[in-house]
């Protein structure tokens, strides 16, 4: 993976190693963070050339910030630090893509021009519309949304085995993933926004899905 390397600065120290949730007494951490990731692990994978592309490595870096923001309260020191480092990383990564003449994971060119814009952060109205549309799609399509989010944005999915329930936390869906699932849901609902199923059929087999 030529051109991609990971350099640590003093501010990244909390993210260099895996979260030792047992020693810290953070017993809910495994339930909230579904796919742990840390910068040290990413650096080792880069050195061993385990990533197929720079985009794969970048996605793991993004996961580090997203995991922190998912677990910690909005406005907390750790949340703000992750947000700041995320912004700095995206700026540097965009420059790297431009230098290498590569494309971002969403297929947009990193070489400048109209195609360089990142996925737009969803507004509150976008999130409300997404949640509303989830109640209009078929149980099969709802299952596809859950499977897709569990794959590309696991921090947005909370599974409660005791109640056999799956919760979609819209606030935890990153912009790129939101754009992808929103397009799918919009297609399922149709241009007229018509209901394709009764609201009572939210359950997929014995699974319940709800948004928050």
TrEMBL record:
What are the residue boundaries of the NET domain, all occurrences included? 112-196
* Entry coiled-coil feature ranges: none
| Keywords of the record | Bromodomain, Transcription, Transcription regulation
The reply on keyword Repeat is no
Indicate the segments forming the Bromo domain, all copies. 7-79
PANTHER family according to UniProt: OSJNBA0053K19.4 PROTEIN
- This protein's name: Bromo domain-containing protein
